[in-house]
Amino acid sequence: MKLFVYGLLRPGFEGAELLGDARTLGAATTRGWLYELGGYPGLIAGEGTVHGIVCEIDAARLPAIDEFEGYDPRDPAGSLYLRETLTAWCVDTGKAVIAQAYRYNRQAPPAGWIPGGEYCRHSFA
């Protein structure tokens, strides 16, 4: 399955090992706003642009990734994130890709918006 990752699941961050031997399909963007939530980012629906990568992962890895992201499919309302289907666009080709991604399941914080929607640049700034 395809997964759009934009934060701690990206290579070089603490959650990347959860993807195992995922095949990276390349840099991509999706619609939304990205917020700093105190050491990790959150994607919120919106008209901005969020940068990440699309990976092809083994679906058997989803339970561990769901747990890392605070998503419980038995309790979506109580989950910190929701795993949802979205459209991402490959940076190199402009081609649309349908992928899963984790959206923040709380109110956007009053501060913490990440201009440019790129957590990698923000986290090392």
Can you walk me through this structure?
This protein is mostly beta strands and 125 residues long. The chain has a single domain, classed as Gamma-glutamyl cyclotransferase-like (Hypothetical upf0131 protein ytfp, Roll). It has helices spanning 62-69, 119-123, and strands at residues 2-5, 23-36, 41-56, 81-90, 96-104. Strands 1-3-2-4-5 form a five-stranded antiparallel β-sheet, with no helix packed on it. The longest helix is centred in the middle third of the chain and has 8 residues, at 62-69. The chain is globular and about 35 Å long. The termini are far apart.
> Which CATH top level class fits?
Alpha Beta
- Give the ordered list of helices and strands: EEEHEEH
The helix/strand class is mainly beta
Tell me, rounded to a whole number, the average pLDDT: 94
For the termini, the CA-CA separation is 32 Å
Query: How much of the sequence is in beta strands?
Result: 35-45%
What is the CATH H-level superfamily?
Gamma-glutamyl cyclotransferase-like
Number of strands: 5
- Helical amount: 10-25%
Query: What Rg, in angstroms, do the CA atoms define?
Result: 13 Å
What name is given to the CATH topology? Hypothetical upf0131 protein ytfp
Q: Runs with pLDDT <50, length 5+?
A: none
Short description:
With 125 residues, the protein is mainly beta. It has helices at residues 62-69, 119-123, and strands spanning 2-5, 23-36, 41-56, 81-90, 96-104.
